[in-house]
Amino acid sequence: SGALGVDAESAPDTPPDHPNLIETAQREPAPRFELPDIDDGTATLSDYDGQVLLLNFWATWCGPCLKEIPELAKFQDDHWADTVVLGINFEETPMEEVQRYVTASKINYPVLRIGSQPLVPFEPLKGLPSTFLVSPTGVYLGSHVGPITSSQLDRLLEQARIDAGISSRKD
Predict the structure, then answer these.
(1) Contact 107, 100 (CB under 8 A)
(2) 154: burial class by Cβ within 10 Å (0-12, 13-18, 19+)?
(3) Are 75 and 160 in contact (CB under 8 A)?
(4) Which of 39, 66, 150, 157 has the most crowded Cβ, counting Cβ within 10 A?
(5) Per-residue pLDDT for the chain (171 aa), expressed as one digit of tens each?
(6) What distance in Å separates the CA atoms of residue 123 and residue 138, rounded to the nearest whole number?
């Protein structure tokens, strides 16, 4: 696997980075969580049972995080039928500021705020942004640290579909 965070477009002669996928025997259930959303509600992992879930930890002050938001938004548009991108805002910025940022950035997927307890095994994070793949059955399948590209997102989705026994298809 190549260096994390390399933009595939800036290195056309090298294959895109492969996400860090977990060997089948070492997979474990994703942590059950209840986190506040940016609209004064809450969300839990079980709210998304039956869907592929991409948990993306990000912050408004993180340049690479901001760079990948359009990729994540396009991915959500392209795969809305069976996949949810779930942004987890990893900072203590006032809620109103995060809400304004989400609106201005045209984020089209749910955004939650980090809780008071770490979400092991996702945390502690190795860096921002960090993206984690959870299968439709709630199993933690893999991760990627650094800005993620559409080809990397597609690879993660394909792995989740294989894990769920769903045949490969284009949405």
Answers:
(1) no
(2) middle
(3) no
(4) 157
(5) 333 333 333 333 333 455 677 777 777 888 888 899 999 899 998 999 999 999 999 999 999 999 999 999 999 999 999 899 999 999 988 999 999 999 999 999 999 998 777 776 777 888 899 999 898 888 888 888 999 888 888 888 888 888 777 755 554
(6) 17
- E strand residue ranges, 2-158: 20-21, 28-29, 34-36, 42-44, 52-58, 83-89, 111-113, 130-134, 139-145
For residue 92, give the DSSP letter: -
Q: Model-level pTM?
A: 0.81
Peptide bond into 16 cis (omega under 30): no
User: Structure tokens of 81?
Assistant: 């039928």
| Cβ atoms 99, 38 nearer than 8 A | yes
Which structure tokens are listed for 56? 């993306």
